[in-house]
Amino acid sequence: MLGSRGYDYNFVVIGGGSAGLVASYMGASLKAKVALIERGKMGGDCLNTGCVPSKALLRTAKIFSYRHRAEDFGLKSINMELDFSQVMGRVKRVINGIAPNDSVERYNSLGVHCLQASAKIISPREVVADGKILRTKAVIVASGAKPFVPPLEGLAEMAPLTSDSIWDLESLPRRLLVLGGGAIGCELALAFQRLGSKVTLVEKNPRLLPREDAEVGELLRQRFELEGMRVLLGNKQSSFRREEGEKVMVCEDGSTHAFDHVLVALGRKPNVEGMGLEALGVKLRPNGTIETDLAMRTNVRGIYACGDVTGPYQFTHFASLSGTTAAINALFSPFRTKADLTVFPWVTFTDPEIARVGLSSDEAKAKGINVTESRFEFAHSDRARTEEEPVGFVKVLTATGSDRILGATIMGPEAGELIQEFVLAMKYKLGLNKILGTTHAYPTLVEANRMAAGAWKRSTAPKGGLAFLQWLHAFRRS
Question: Is the pLDDT of residue 4 over 90?
Answer without folding.
Answer: no
